[in-house]
Amino acid sequence: MATTSLLLAALLVFFSAAGAAAQMPGFVSIDCGGSANYTDELGLVWTGDAGWFPFGETATIAVPSEKRTQYSTVRYFPAASSTTSSTTKHCYTLPVRPRTRYLVRATFLYGNFDSSNVFPEFDLYLGASRWSTIVIYDDAKVVTREAVVLAAAPALSVCLSNATTGQPFISTLELRQLNGSLYYTDYEADAFLGLSARINFGAPTAEPVRYPDDPYDRIWESDMVRRANYLVDVAPGTVNVSTDRPVFVASSERPPQKVMQTAVVGSLGELTYRLNLNGFPGNGWAFSYFAEIEEFVVPETRKFKLFIPGLPDVSKPTVDIGENAPGKYRLYEPGFFNITLPFVLSFAFRKTNDSSKGPILNAFEIYKYIHIELGSPDAPVMAGLASRYPLADWAVEGGDPCVPWPWSWVRCTSEAQPRVISINLSGKNLTGNVPPEVGALPCLAEIGLANNMLTGLIPDLSGSSNLSIIHLENNQLTGSVPSYFGSLPKLSELYLECSDPFHQYNAMQVPSKQQAVWIRTQGSAKSEHYFQIDRQTDHYFIPPRPRAGAGADDGDDFTNKNKVVPPVQKKLQNNPSSQSQHREIATETAHPYRLSELEVATNNFASRIGSGGFGIVYYGKLSDGKEIAVKVPTNDSYQGKKQFRNEVSLLSRIHHRNLVAFLGYCHEDGRNILVYEFMHNGTLKEHLHGRDKHISWIKRLEIAEDAAKGQSVDQ
Prior knowledge:
eleven-stranded mixed sheet; 32% strand; membrane; Tyr_kinase_cat_dom; nucleotide-binding; Jelly Rolls; leucine-rich repeat; ATP-binding; single chain; mainly beta
């Protein structure tokens, strides 16, 4: 599955040389699709990614209402095929300082860059965590997403994935290092902050306030902007006030002085507003910014309370800016570090009975807490492996190695914190020693390092007890086969041809509980040797040589070269005629099940759970407890082995959340069997037509839409 990204070491050199004097340290501004480096009218240094970002495509757009240079281009990511648009991720990886907070901002201006007039919809990720869904509804409007995140590692990845319509694209990507005290929360190890609203009240124009007025380049949106469901239901008597006098703001979140020099006042005793909060309902961080910027004398006072429907506790504190700040022209910042808010927020500030002045409001910010997904526990090890090859495209794919989709050379489990089970770096021109990280992946089952230029000894792989297939052929390795190979309980295939270790097996012992390990070697250009170790006797012997071209029509193997005979069970050794019936089918993710394994799992196909023109479906439970649905087609469902092989190959490549997961197959003794994940909640028919089922028409429409999405992947 294709992924894309870049570590921006070159950008650090550029920004330190060109922008140190022009902007705050820790600023990175990427003009996605742009080809030039420049400084904009605000003094922000931009770099185009066209010269160093080797993935995706660039396009030029022209939106009459948008004159800024960074919005004249986009970078977009066309799908390799119609079935991969929702199963890819495309990542930029930004260098950061660990334990430092950053504001991350991504913007999207469609501008009909692809001339399709199909508004894109896709997901935005921070590392393994889903940040937001980007929905384009106006080709001339900039869609912006901001987040405040505490960097946990030296790199931070921003990824686009899961496109449901159109093509994922991005206009700009910005990184702003924040002051150490800004936006601290007790929850930042578990959640980052996604911006929902940051509003400057009493603004004189519709233009936002940002850098250089805000040294951290936060964008404070004007309350004069007019759009649907944004600051509506304004109370009568709401008036703007402003001052030219300096306002002290060097505390708390340090809003810019220009923002605090304007405000709205409820001259009739009340301020009311309603707006939609992107990302909500949910828990959030919400703070108001007040400063007394009107002149009045004692005994006049300004006291008021906050009111939110359904949240009576917010009305308990009384705001008295003169006392709380204390004094005039000073920042006072009350708020909530963790408050539950609805999507449609209505709120009011109302003066108390003993107040002579109506409420005042200068600005506020609201963020939603977004849970940080831990991703794969193998991520640090995989990052270490990739860092050894910084110039290789496959090594800079970015993001989590497994979430939301694996790197192109990786396969992972499907659990909440997926583990890496396969790496395939065959034919990638690797040099030096075998990377030791492959021995630090405890769930790794398959290693593909064939057809490279690796040298030295085979490293310690004993920590990967699940290893079953190891490809090291066509390298320049030296030394003997490590003795620990014999203690790997699941090892069944070891390929070493054209490497020195095949000459020396004397140190390898095999546990008696397992049957055999196949070792393919090559003594010379004209002589191949297939050794098999009998785990009962610890003796090596040479089984019958496979016929020339065996398996040649079964598709590409793990090494993309030299199709080899798979491991053979003891009962098949005694019955050579059955070997050709059991040959595995080359797939991307499908697991080959033994017929005997499925017979045990289904209690000899005893529990029938469905049937149709295709055949019969049986319930089963594997030895590891995993529940499965076993589909046994009728004899005429397939016109031959080739058709069955093609179906398995296709099913193994299709993955979608609305499709039942295909797990594997069995092609043995003339039987063609498909194995799927078992779904506990019954069939769709039972839910739609069951007597005790009552599904609304809205829900039925959602079901139809989800089914259509699943079917579109299966075409």
